[in-house]
Design brief:
Layout: H1 5-15, E1 19-23, H2 24-39, E2 45-50, H3 57-65, E3 69-72, H4 75-83, E4 91-93, H5 101-107, E5 111-114, H6 117-130, E6 134-141, E7 154-155, H7 160-170, E8 174-180, H8 189-206, E9 213-215, H9 226-229, H10 239-245, H11 247-253, E10 264-267, H12 271-274, E11 278-290, E12 293-298, H13 302-305, E13 316-319, E14 326-334, E15 345-352, E16 357-360, E17 380-385, E18 388-393, H14 398-402
Parallel strand pairs: 1-17, 2-3, 2-10, 3-4, 4-5, 5-6, 6-7, 6-8, 8-9, 9-10, 12-14
Antiparallel strand pairs: 1-11, 11-12, 11-16, 13-16, 14-15, 17-18
Helix pairs in contact: 2-10, 6-7
The protein binds pyridoxal-5'-phosphate.
Pyridoxal-5'-phosphate binds next to helix 12.
């Protein structure tokens, strides 16, 4: 978003700084762009929003209103989805550490992707106890050209996959109806094509009828701010490019299957959807020089900015608010914590002064959900829609932090 000084001062007065600002309209446009790129090639495509990346209920509710599913990996995330009104049949429960909610989720026709053989047995025991037919998916562990071996899912290159399928088929109450995969750090088109082709082959091999769903996880580049593009050595694919190597191939594979029997195709975008649409407005608290290195101390820390701030340089805008400003060459913008590594932005060159505002872009994913109560509580998050602001999360207080301790 573009902020001027007056808008920032109004936000500061109403909510305090730092403050996250969610751009609702741009998020919705991006959501619809992904949806239409995929649906125009395979109409039975659905988005399942990845809660772990940002489970702010306001954002999850917007996804729900737009018809998206919830993708959760813990009982806590499942609770959030239920609290905002999801029924289990629209919640995908993934991950290696499913809690006790798995049982009610299954008994209420929730979607589950199994991570390991012990989970197969756990689910079969539930099915037998309640004598209820449970439809299941398996997360398959595949290689799509990545340089590491993922620790998630069931290995398709060992006997485990046959063992899992056999155990599910042997139980009269359980039925394998879907497959899931997600491979981190593999955002290129080749990797997506590979996961599509492999999951189709595995579905043909292991699922008796036409599958009810195929879930390709996520890990797209998403919509990237122009000032970040230069940091990537590869061309950034568009949603249409991704749809060509996923939705179109799935469409072709099931072209002779009647519409009502075609599988639902899911992806599970998180950062893909939310990264670009949250900014953090921070402020320079003080400026000093140590052994010729200039340092500007911010009122935020790397913990506010999310995982991605460690691997890429976030786009920033400095908004003048200081009467005395100087020209700096390679000044580090450092965080408020006592960690030496807390440097939200290295080597900024330009005019800067104490009290100037710094807006960090691209902090939608793994930011507010990943902020520990370390040194200071979390700041507020607001949304902006039609130029009006609304509160998404109030600023935390010391009492919020102390609430779970015994005083
Ligand atoms: C299983 C699963 N689905 C979806 C996502 C979200 O992917 P992205 O944030 O790249 O859209 C993740 C992220 O790690 C994941 O582990």
């Amino acid at each position: 978003m573009v902020f001027d000084k007056d808008t920032i001062e109004e936000i500061k007065r109403m909510y305090g700084l730092p403050c996250y600002v969610f751009d609702e309209s741009a998020f919705c446009l991006n959501y619809n762009h992904l949806l239409s790129a995929m649906r125009s090639r395979y109409p039975k495509y659905e988005i399942a929003y990845s809660y772990k990346t940002n489970y702010a209920p306001a954002i999850c509710s917007i996804v729900k209103k737009m018809g998206g599913y919830a993708e959760v990996v813990s009982d806590m995330e499942h609770d959030i989805a239920e609290k905002i009104g999801y029924q289990c049949k629209h919640i995908i429960y993934n991950g290696p550490f499913k809690g006790h909610k798995l049982k009610t989720h299954l008994l209420n026709d929730g979607i589950v992707n199994i991570d390991n053989l012990e989970e197969v047995d756990r689910i079969i025991a539930i099915a037998e106890q309640y004598k209820k037919e449970l439809k299941l998916g398996i997360r398959v562990n595949i290689q799509v050209g990545q340089s590491f071996v993922s620790r998630f899912g069931i290995d398709i290159d060992s006997s485990d996959i046959c063992e899992a399928v056999n155990r599910i088929n042997k139980c009269i109450y359980t039925k394998l109806v879907g497959l899931h995969c997600h491979i981190g750090r593999s955002r290129g088109l080749d990797a997506w094509k590979s996961r599509t082709i492999q999951i189709l082959k595995l579905a043909d091999q292991y699922i008796k009828d036409i599958p009810e769903y195929l879930d390709l996880g996520s890990g797209m580049f998403g919509d990237i701010a122009p000032d970040m593009l230069e940091q990537f050595s590869t061309n950034i694919p568009s949603y249409e490019d991704y749809a060509e190597v996923t939705a179109l191939i799935v469409n072709d594979h099931y072209k002779s299957v009647p519409k009502e029997k075609k599988p639902v195709l899911f992806t599970e975008p998180g950062t893909t959807l939310d990264n670009r649409y949250i900014d953090l407005i921070a402020q320079i608290h003080s400026i000093k020089t140590i052994k010729n290195k200039d340092l500007a101390i911010l009122n935020c820390s790397v913990h506010n900015l999310g995982d991605v701030s460690g691997s890429v340089k976030l786009p920033i805008k400095v908004i003048e608010n200081s009467v005395i400003r100087s020209d700096y060459q390679q000044i580090d913008l450092v965080g408020y914590t006592c960690l030496e590594r807390d440097v939200p932005y290295q080597d900024f060159s330009g005019k800067l002064g104490k009290d100037d505002y710094v807006v960090f872009g691209n902090v939608g994913g793994y930011s507010n959900v990943d902020k520990p109560p370390f040194i200071l509580p979390q700041c507020a998050m607001i949304g902006v829609c039609d130029r009006k602001t609304y509160l998404i999360k109030r600023k935390e207080t010391t009492d919020d932090i102390l609430d779970t301790y015994i005083l």
